[in-house]
Specification:
Radius of gyration: 17 Å
Order of helices and strands: EEEEEHHHEEEHEEEE
Oligomer: single chain
Number of strands: 12
Number of helices: 4
Structural class: alpha+beta
Largest sheet: 5 strands, mixed
Distance between the termini: 14 Å
Strand content: 25-35%
Shape: globular
Helix content: 25-40%
Strand order of the largest sheet: 1-3-10-11-12
Length: 180
């Protein structure tokens, strides 16, 4: 999945590039959600590994790590993405660019805690679903196309985006590599 131009993306971080040589890689994506933006026309990509739905749960952390929360990550990612290319200068150019963006949401694994007794119900911790729902709302509010999604399940994924080609790859243990 990686090459010498691979740039890691860790939990609660985000990155953007317009270099055709760069590949972003987020490893161990579990209940968090990777949101990826790609503009094939200008070969620009951005990615964030988002962990929580709402920054109100920890405003101090959110100020230092805006990519950690859906409500701060998406606007920060859009701003960073717009800032990486001179092709997005001016409101008209940015409006046109937003029409052609491909957006991906990947992750949101469900975490289930089994109880000591088999007669007790399991507890589902679906933070990822909340993160994904919030990101979908923000994408829709921004007037962007609906995202391509690879969400749910119980596995941990490695995700990459090859900026030059726009190829998004997902690797999960015991599963064949998936190309979105």
């Amino acid at each position: 999945m990686s090459n010498s131009n691979t740039v890691p993306v860790y939990a609660a971080t985000g990155r953007a590039t317009d270099s055709e040589e760069v590949e972003f890689s987020a490893e161990q994506v579990g209940f968090g959600v990777c949101v990826i933006l790609h503009d094939a026309q200008v070969h620009a990509s951005a990615i964030a590994h988002v962990l929580m739905p709402d920054s109100n749960s920890n405003t101090t952390f959110a100020r230092k790590n805006p990519y950690g929360f859906s409500d701060t990550a998406f606007p920060a990612l859009m701003e960073t993405f717009r800032g990486i290319s001179r092709n997005y200068a001016g409101d008209e150019a940015w409006t046109e660019a937003k029409k052609r963006l491909k957006i991906y949401l990947i992750g949101a694994s469900e975490i289930t805690s089994t109880q000591a007794s088999s007669t007790e119900p399991t507890i589902e911790l679906n933070i990822g679903k909340l993160v994904a729902n919030r990101l979908r709302d923000l994408i829709k509010t921004a007037g962007l196309t609906a995202p391509i999604e690879a969400l749910g399940g119980t596995g941990i994924r490695d995700v990459s985006i090859r900026n030059g080609t726009g190829k998004v790859l997902i690797e999960e243990a015991g599963q064949p590599e998936k190309n979105l």
